[in-house]
């Protein structure tokens, strides 16, 4: 549906611009925005490669495993059924740990695996279990110790201090995760 809405917005804007005699300006703006988009993507690729390399070193050195080990007792308190299943908890812990370290590419397969494991534990296949909802909330509002994507975009756009968003990101994502968990636990009691 959103694709249809965007299509009509763009088509209306282009047609309106041509009818008003601004076709040349529309062409120039399309070319300029395409040029700046390609430059941004090329800059982002280099920076993202750097961060992915740093995160891979953290993963190979065992840093992500150590964080996962610290997270496991906390997550066992939050999840009801999944806490009793080693496969489900392993995938949940690795997904959340990878997200915390900014390894979103590595987190996705763990997230898919965690949802499959949580689905396996779910008795009602037509509805998401409380653990599935909680995992989705934690995955979406995961605490970010290193927001690599934001840092990369800021660096690609020429920011003088692209990493200055680390502390605000840690604070806001922590608050979001806590509020999300509290809301899930309140909703568990009523639904």
TrEMBL record:
<feature type="transmembrane region" description="Helical">
    <location>
        <begin position="88"/>
        <end position="112"/>
    </location>
</feature>
<dbReference type="Pfam" id="PF07670">
    <property type="entry name" value="Gate"/>
</dbReference>
<protein>
    <recommendedName>
        <fullName>Nucleoside transporter/FeoB GTPase Gate domain-containing protein</fullName>
    </recommendedName>
</protein>
<feature type="transmembrane region" description="Helical">
    <location>
        <begin position="36"/>
        <end position="58"/>
    </location>
</feature>
<feature type="transmembrane region" description="Helical">
    <location>
        <begin position="165"/>
        <end position="187"/>
    </location>
</feature>
<feature type="transmembrane region" description="Helical">
    <location>
        <begin position="6"/>
        <end position="24"/>
    </location>
</feature>
<keyword id="KW-0812">Transmembrane</keyword>
<keyword id="KW-0472">Membrane</keyword>
<dbReference type="InterPro" id="IPR011642">
    <property type="entry name" value="Gate_dom"/>
</dbReference>
<feature type="transmembrane region" description="Helical">
    <location>
        <begin position="133"/>
        <end position="153"/>
    </location>
</feature>
<feature type="domain" description="Nucleoside transporter/FeoB GTPase Gate">
    <location>
        <begin position="42"/>
        <end position="155"/>
    </location>
</feature>
<keyword id="KW-1133">Transmembrane helix</keyword>
């Amino acid at each position: 549906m959103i694709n249809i809405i965007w299509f009509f917005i763009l088509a209306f804007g282009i047609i309106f611009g041509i009818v008003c005699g601004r076709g040349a300006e529309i062409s120039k703006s399309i070319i300029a925005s395409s040029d700046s988009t390609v430059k941004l993507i090329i800059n982002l690729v280099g920076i993202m490669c750097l961060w992915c390399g740093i995160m891979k070193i953290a993963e190979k050195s065992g840093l992500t495993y150590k964080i996962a080990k610290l997270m496991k007792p906390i997550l066992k308190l939050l999840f009801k059924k999944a806490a009793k299943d080693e496969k489900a908890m392993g995938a949940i812990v690795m997904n959340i740990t990878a997200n915390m370290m900014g390894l979103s590419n590595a987190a996705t397969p763990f997230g898919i695996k965690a949802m499959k494991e949580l689905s396996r534990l779910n008795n009602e296949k037509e509805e998401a279990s409380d653990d599935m909802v909680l995992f989705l909330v934690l995955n979406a509002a995961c605490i970010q110790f290193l927001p690599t994507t934001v840092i990369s975009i800021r660096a690609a756009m020429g920011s003088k201090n692209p990493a200055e968003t680390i502390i605000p990101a840690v604070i806001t994502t922590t608050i979001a995760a806590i509020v999300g968990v509290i809301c899930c636990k309140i909703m568990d009691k009523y639904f």
